[in-house]
Specification:
The protein has 161 residues and is an alpha+beta fold. It is 26% helix and 41% strand. The chain has helices spanning 16-25, 27-34, 132-155, and strands at residues 3-12, 39-46, 54-59, 68-77, 82-90, 97-108, 114-124. It has a 7-stranded antiparallel β-sheet. A hairpin with a 4-residue loop joins strand 4 and strand 5 (82-90). The radius of gyration is 16 Å and the shape is globular.
């Protein structure tokens, strides 16, 4: 078993609050809209969006590795723009990973904009090594998705203000 952490910082001209509103408060509606080629839908399975809520993210056949993942919200801190969830079913769980937790933090920058810090904590299954190519692919995919969200918000300046 390998325990690891992956961190990615992405700068954005958008305000932290606007990205928070779009991705955390309305991500279940926004993701299929901005990335329909990847995300076919997001359903709230249990809860009201707060800690303990379980969401199922369904992927299109473009995702060759898995068709869905269920996420359990473990932290929402709107004052500090921190959102965290764990995968509880689907995805790479049981295939390559024993556990995985994601955290997003939107840090306002002086003069405007923000930095989104994406952190992934994981434990692989016994006998599974950390795959650096998969790590880079995960970083690239998350950056691409973030940039799609950013472009959508920049082209729709009245949304999520």
């Amino acid at each position: 078993m390998v325990a690891g952490t992956i961190t990615l910082d992405i700068e954005s001209p958008l305000e932290a609050k606007r990205l928070w509103n779009a991705t955390v408060k309305d991500g279940h509606n926004l993701l299929p809209k901005v990335a329909p080629e990847i995300v076919s839908g997001v359903t709230i399975v249990q809860g009201n969006g707060g800690v303990g809520t379980i969401k199922q993210v369904n992927f299109t056949p473009a995702n060759k590795d898995f068709s869905y993942v269920k996420e359990s919200v473990v932290e929402i801190n709107e004052g500090n723009f921190v959102y965290a969830f764990t995968h509880v079913e689907g995805g790479e769980l049981g295939k390559n990973l024993a556990s995985v937790k994601f955290e997003f933090k939107f840090s306002p920058k002086a003069g405007g904009g923000c930095v989104c810090t994406w952190t992934c904590h994981f434990d692989t299954l016994p006998g599974v090594a950390k795959d650096e190519a998969k790590v880079q692919e995960l970083k690239n995919n998350n950056t691409a998705l973030f940039k799609k969200i950013e472009a959508y918000l920049l082209s729709n300046p009245a949304l999520y203000c």
